[in-house]
Design brief:
This protein has a 6-stranded mixed beta sheet. Strands 4-5 form a two-stranded antiparallel sheet. With about 170 residues, it is an alpha+beta fold.
Amino acid sequence: MFPYMENAITDTNQVVGQVTLAGGSFWNIEAGFRGVTGILATVVGYTGGDEEHPDYARVSTGETGHVEAVRVAYDPAAISFTTILSRFFNLHDPASDESQAGFDGSQYRSVIFCHTEEDCRTARAFIREEVASGKYTAPVVTVVVPAAPFWPAEECHQQYYEKLGNRYRRPLF
């Protein structure tokens, strides 16, 4: 667990689910999950790349292979994994490769990093259902992979919109 998560999870007997989601700016994805019933905590960071301890400046170049991501801790008794995936798909364009709401580059690609094999199966089935629904005119490019090492982003990026209030807010997809 990371400090933001530990501070939000007070009942040590509570079952906690985790998923790491990438789909554009981590600020937008995190904002879309903050305050949602069943979401216990979020932390933004970098994952999926080759470099240890990456930072925003390096990841922004697109050269590290990392994505901007949000690790979400949730209470499975209050919110289902499928509901989280549905919200994630509503927060970004899962059919857009490396471009989300004005953010462009490989660090903004759509990825679901699963923390259990069951979650990977559920995520793949969810994507199949989304594709079959016909609501996307382009192929869904979201990738489902096992969770990789996660590096929390710098403090200034955590809960970014809450820190800035209404002074700066990119529209959620």
